[in-house]
Amino acid sequence: MIASVSKTQRFLAVSLVLFGLGCAESQIGFPHPAELIRWPTSMLVDSDGRYAYVVNSNFDQLYKSGTIAVIDLVEERVLPDTTVQITPFGGIMRGLVDPDSGQVETLLIPSRQSDSIFRIDVQRDSEDSPPVLDCGGPADGDTGTCNEDHEYTSDEGLSPGEEPYASLILHELGPSHRIFISAGLVDGTLNFFWIQDDGALEKLAETTTNSGVQSMVYHPGTGTLVLAHKSKTFLTVIDLDFGLVDDTPVVNLGDPIFLQLPALVKTTVGLDFGRELSLLPDGHRIALVWRQPDSLYILEPDATQASRFRLVHEIAVGDGASRVVFAPFGVDGSWRAFVSSFKEDKIYVVDYEAGLVTNYVPVGRGPYELAVVHQEDRKWIVTADFEDGTLTIVDGDPESATHLQVITAVKGIEVEE
Predict the structure, then answer these.
(1) CA 36 to CA 71: how far, in whole Å?
(2) What are phi and psi of 228, to 5 degrees?
(3) Of 173, 182, 217, 197, nearest to 105 (Cα)?
(4) Which member of 145, 319, 376, 401 has the greatest number of CB atoms within 10 A?
(5) Is the pTM above the cut of 0.85?
(6) Which stretch of DSSP H or E encloses residue 7?
(7) What is the enclosing helix (H) or strand (E) of 357?
């Protein structure tokens, strides 16, 4: 479905703030080429470390849709026969993993333009074969489309709210009762869904913070959902309690608590602050990517603090800090954080225990989303470069002669636009 002109215009205005780039007028009717990596906004790498799933956002509205594409990182190519269409401005993609193979079996993607959630089934002939994406619809040119059974909207009572962007999957109740959370980028509405065994969604609960949510993380030790807001200088914490009633999940929500950490209030000028929240590998501390000033904050739960968290480190990083991932790619296998710097075309390497930047790596233009590959023969950091339409692969192996150097950049097949 295509949004109205008024909503499309609003999207272009919001996106100018989100990425700081210009947009072209929408050209309705032309499908997004299946073989392109173009304005990527979200990325997952499967457990085999070979195949990446990428959300192509159609940011400039040149085509009628965005896509989900599969990229073979080893052969360095897009697999166009498996690309599927979704509406433009796809949000943060999450993957459901098969408990036996460890491979992704379902992708869930919120879409801001259509106010919906797409479910993409991931199929393989064998564990070693490439993944094939399917969302039930007929072919449309060279790119598959999704049928109504794979798109969840308000028509089925499954509205994810206005402009859903951030998302999470929680496993607190076990593999048969996984919970998907979506959050609105504009109104801050949170929606909780039960992911049933067949992949269908059932709505469980809804609440709002009245502040657009850019990122969120669940802290299992405290039972709290922590939210970062792009245009606000505070965090929000919501206590969550889970249970089962007649084998149906129940989510009890506490009242939102607004947390003002003194370190975060260095400027109130502008509209770009909280960018990403992520648990550290220890499962206890939280990393917060922040702009104005561009920093990586390390937070630790502290019941004695009114803010509920204590600041452990404040580490300056590059301009346009966006996303963070972690990998044991430091000296002697020590853990490092890797932070994308959208405006500097770099990723920053951070020793978060020492609280300092140890290196940086120039990559493609506009690095945004990040992923880690940690296999015996492949230790990589992968960046999805928004402006270049590339996936840059950086060598993460500390024993390699090319440690923290770019190995290659994967680009889609060129087509005339």
Answers:
(1) 10
(2) -110, 140
(3) 197
(4) 145
(5) yes
(6) helix 5-19
(7) strand 356-362
- Read off the pLDDT of residues 339-363 as tens digits, 9 standing for 90 and up: 999 999 999 999 999 999 999 999 9
Which regions of 302-345 does DSSP assign to beta strands (E)? 309-316, 321-327, 336-341
Give dist(CA 16, CA 147) in Å, integer: 31
DSSP-based three-state secondary structure for 388: coil
Query: In what helix (H) or strand (E) does residue 109 lie, and over which residues does it extend?
Result: strand 104-111
- Span between the terminal Cα atoms of the chain, in Å: 22
Spatial separation of the C-alpha atoms in residues 395 and 374, rounded to whole Å: 11
CA distance 57 to 71: 16
Q: Which residues contact 282 (CB under 8 A, 6 or more apart)?
A: none
Tokens standing for residue 281: 């590998």
How far is Cα 366 from Cα 383, in angstroms, rounded to an integer?
9
Peptide bond into 293 cis (omega under 30): yes
DSSP code at position 26: P
Q: For 163-180, write each residue's pLDDT tens digit.
A: 999 999 999 999 899 999
| DSSP track, 183-246 | EETTT-EEEEEEE-TTS-EEEEEEEE-SS--SEEEEETTTTEEEEE-TT-SSEEEEEEEEEEET
3-class secondary structure, 302: coil
